[in-house]
Amino acid sequence: MPLLSARETAYQTIRSRIITMELKPGDPLNDRELAEELGISRTPMREALLMLNLARMVDIKPQSGTHVAPINLKLMEMEQFARYTLEKEILNRLRGRVTPRQEEEYRSNIETYRVLEADMSQPDRTARMLELDNAFHRKSFELCGMEAHYDHMLASLQHVERIRKFSLLTEENKSVCSSHTAILEALLHGSADDVSEALESHLSRYKQSVAQARSVHPEYFIDE
């Protein structure tokens, strides 16, 4: 696998920090300090910040400097619709074709998530829960030979991904295992409508997470 360039390393590092809310909306971003921290020159760091600006994750203003952009709810809705449309197609291609071994892999993922969710003392709990959630959804793409499509889709979900950290800290997160189980049951025994309903119910959880997060941090969001 080819090594990442300095620009790509900087981009992925800052993007990850924004998505996980290590860097919050409104936080300042100093290219010199960030470049020193990552051990790179300022040029690739500036290029990375420009890339993040194009993705609407960073605001660059000559007068006030560079800051983490607020979460754009309109873009979030567009991203979620695109994800639903693609993932529904993949799930329906797989529907009725899941083998017993593949079913067990799905159920193992759900159970591992359930155990992790119940034990708040687990190290790196939040990151591991996100990884398990991603792995559950990626599995369907993988079984269709289209895992690259999932990876591309996930990389393009700039604003939806930013709300997921909030969802892990709210009551809404407690529905993840039951939602994943409903999707799996629809894959195994359901109709196309059952698949669509299970997926839509699961992916629409973000709206409740947004409402809860916005009531606490309204400054983190914009409606544009």
UniProtKB/TrEMBL annotation:
Query: Is the keyword Transcription assigned to this protein?
Result: yes
Please state every residue range assigned to the domain named HTH gntR-type.
4-71
Q: Which SMART domains match?
A: FCD, HTH_GNTR
Q: Which InterPro entries match?
A: GntR_C (IPR011711), TF_FadR/GntR_C (IPR008920), Tscrpt_reg_HTH_GntR (IPR000524), WH-like_DNA-bd_sf (IPR036388), WH_DNA-bd_sf (IPR036390)
Presence of the UniProt keyword DNA-binding in the record = yes
Q: Which GO terms describe its molecular function?
A: DNA binding; DNA-binding transcription factor activity
State the protein's name: GntR family transcriptional regulator
Native source species: Faecalibacterium taiwanense
